[in-house]
Design brief:
Layout: E1 9-11, E2 14-16, E3 27-30, E4 36-40, H1 49-52, E5 57-59, E6 62-63, H2 75-87, H3 93-100, H4 107-110, E7 111-115, H5 117-136, E8 142-145, H6 155-159, H7 161-169, E9 176-181, H8 190-196, E10 201-207, H9 213-219, H10 226-238, E11 243-250, H11 258-270, E12 276-280, H12 288-298, H13 300-309, H14 318-335, H15 349-353
Parallel strand pairs: 4-7, 5-8, 8-9, 9-10, 10-11, 11-12
Antiparallel strand pairs: 1-2, 3-4, 6-7
């Protein structure tokens, strides 16, 4: 796939795929800053709970993410798509190596797979009846948009896959639609989300791990600044959208301190957040080669604890997870930001959390 062979085309004001060679992945566009966008054809677009283990239905308009957060557990999905394309003969071994990156993770933020907008809407026509049927029987009532990518990453400004899905959902009733994003681009669809709120329960989760710009620069340098995300919450709430904070991932011993969580929740409260949820770090194999060296350089003692506590695991120890939720909910009650998870007693929280010495940037 030679860059000098690339020609981005538009149809109706939007880019259309171009087939570069027989069997190759169609390259939609290439940006000067290095991100490339490839057409990704898939027959099924909704992921049922039993296939992901996340407890709800999910949809991801893109594979990969331009924000490229160092801690993102979804990096595995990018390689999975590449491996399937290679096995199907759509990319050569050389192209596979180029797209995945020298260390196996770079492609996640530089080579983004875009699901065809029209094909996605057609797939929803086929698949939504199953979701709605299970919803009416009390199972799988939530549709999560953005479980493994940011649905409002910069690519969405051009390709509008997320917007097309929301427009299609206007024809349905009675679901819980939850969107996760870091991007202020979601405000583009504020009117649409407010309209959806008339026929569904709609929650927009703005992801934020800290109000300290130094923390974000260290772990997610390409993502929007804290004040931009907080302003996004306020703008959505002002437009009638139920928006709040997803404080995730919370890094043990780094961003789980009472002070950091309090500052995040207070900032959310000041900007009208209707809710807040916590979620601890998932240290899956695809994350470790990128995140651990960064932490090793700054906090070597903490990194050793991560390797020990997460040994053979992708998730934090259950005792730590439970203690973190108790701490978060206790702080949220004091600050006055609602949480949807069951409130637990605060007893014993400090004993578990003190397993991790606090680190500061």
């Amino acid at each position: 796939m030679r860059p000098d062979a690339i020609t981005a085309r538009r149809a109706a004001g939007r880019p259309a795929p171009e087939q570069l060679r027989a069997g190759a992945l169609p390259l939609l566009d290439e940006r000067a800053r290095g991100a490339r966008f490839f057409s990704h054809q898939t027959r099924n677009v909704l992921n049922p709970p039993e296939s992901t283990g996340i407890g709800c239905w999910s949809f991801n308009p893109y594979v990969g993410c331009e924000f490229g957060c160092t801690y993102c557990y979804a990096r595995f999905a990018h390689r999975y798509v590449l491996e399937r394309a290679r096995d199907a003969g759509r990319v050569s071994a050389r192209e596979f190596a180029s797209l995945r990156g020298a260390n196996g993770w770079e492609g996640f933020e530089h080579d983004i797979f875009v699901k065809d907008r029209d094909a996605v809407v057609s797939a929803l026509d086929r698949e939504l009846p199953r979701l709605l049927s299970r919803h009416r029987s009390g199972d799988g009532e939530t549709l999560l948009i953005g479980s493994a990518t940011d649905p409002y990453q910069p690519a969405e400004r051009r390709f509008e896959v997320t917007r097309a899905v929301l427009e299609r959902l206007l024809r349905e009733r009675g679901l819980t639609i939850s969107v996760i994003t870091k991007s202020s681009l979601v405000c583009r669809d504020a009117e649409l989300l407010a309209g959806l709120s008339q026929c569904h329960r709609v929650l927009v989760n703005i992801s934020l791990i800290s109000t300290d710009p130094r923390v974000l620069k260290l772990l997610e340098a390409r993502s929007p600044a804290p004040h931009v995300r907080l302003r996004t919450v306020q703008r959505l709430v002002d437009r009638g959208v139920c928006a709040g904070l997803l404080v995730a991932p919370i890094l043990p011993g780094f961003t789980d301190s009472t002070e950091n969580l309090r500052l995040v929740l207070e900032a959310g409260k000041a900007h009208g957040a209707r809710f807040a949820h916590p979620s601890p770090l998932r240290l899956y194999p695809a994350v470790r080669p990128l995140l651990l060296p960064i932490l090793e350089k700054r906090f070597p003692a903490l990194t050793a604890r991560y390797r020990k506590a997460y040994h053979g695991l992708g998730r934090a120890p259950k005792e730590y997870q439970a203690a973190l939720v108790r701490r978060f909910e206790r702080i949220a009650r004091v600050v006055g930001v609602p949480t949807e998870s069951e409130r637990r007693a605060a007893a014993g929280v400090e004993q578990q959390l003190n397993l991790w010495p606090e680190q500061r940037p």
